[in-house]
Amino acid sequence: MGNTNTLIGITREETLQGKKWVPYSNDVYLYYYFADVQSLVNWGNDGEELRNYRSANGKLMSRVQNIGFYFKGGLSWSVSLQRSQLNKVKLIGRIPFRILPKGSIFGVAAQGVIVESEKAWALLAICCSKLIFAISRLVTPDKMTGTASTASLPIVPLDLSNPKIKKLDSLAHEAHDLFREWTTGEEASTLFIKPWILQTLHGFNPNEFPLTKHPLAAQFEWSNWPTVQKIRSITGSAETPLKHLAELCMKRQFMLNKRIAEIQKEIDEEVYRVYGITDEDKVLIEHELSLQ
Questions:
Q1: What are the angstrom distances between the C-alpha of 228 and each of 17, 170, 200, 204, 209?
Q2: Reduced to 3 states, what is the DSSP secondary structure of residue 65?
């Protein structure tokens, strides 16, 4: 990203100090748990240009909303999906919720839920569950839930002293961290460290961090989940043929995908328990989702 990163701000104060570009979480891709925020929006001087955008005759053409929630962390989800994307969401059976990193701005195509950081993980797990997706289909059966309909979804108290809520917190956090670490091998990522094939060749080095100098990359931390450690243990050597290194990368990805599938299943089961869903009702819900 070069010197562009010196012009990226992640606070209102920084936009008043010449950093006109701000990370913009407004994608319509089907990201779950984690999304690398690569887009930027011109928010120089606290959005002066966008807030005062006018037509040739001087009529105010912009309508910027919810400014007081900008730069705060929480969750984000894609709303303005194309028909093919919505069909895929129905097939997956989950709303594409992920963490909204602190220091970014959300838009309309992908909207934001601002929540205290200590409650974000449990809320993320619940929002990515099949139960919440099934309920959302009752509210908006033919499209993705927007602001009002999402706000009407029933959310249980996020009490971390409750073992069930604590488990959901842990599961969502793990899923997020697995996806985040995998992103460090994507060259276009703000968290890029080095290609997967070189990570497989060289092995894990805890002293390596994102090279991009992107402000959000400063929030990056290595995790220590058991599956992460197993993935890192799949390595080659200087004598390993290139084809075999590629196969080891695929083995790493297979292990990641397998664990994500396990996490999603565990989240579903725990959410059913938290909401007091009986086995009979669970069967009915799963059947209805299979008909989507």
A1: 39, 14, 13, 10, 16
A2: coil
Query: How many CB atoms neighbour CB 279 within 10 A?
Result: 8
CB 114 within 8 A of CB 105: no
The residues near 162 (Cβ < 8 Å, ≥ 6 apart) are: 274
Residue pLDDT, tens place only, 50-106: 999 999 999 999 888 889 999 999 999 988 888 888 888 888 999 999 999 999 999
Q: Is the dihedral of CA 245, 250, 253, 259 positive or negative?
A: negative
Distance CA 208, CA 203 (A): 11
Question: In the beta sheet, which residues pair with residue 105?
Answer: 24
User: Which residue is it, tokens 């407004």?
Assistant: 26
CA–CA dist 14, 32 (Å, integer): 29
Q: Dihedral, CA atoms, 137, 139, 141, 146, nearest 10 degrees?
A: -100
Pick from 219, 185, 190: nearest CA to 202: 185
Q: Phi/psi at 106 (nearest 5 deg)?
A: -100, 165
pLDDT in tens, 5-27: 789 999 999 999 999 999 999 88
Under 8 Å between Cβ of 257 and 274: no
β-strand pairing of 97-100 with 74-78: antiparallel
∠ CA(118), CA(178), CA(92), 5° rounding?
A: 90
- Residue pair 101/10 in contact by the 8 Å Cβ criterion: no
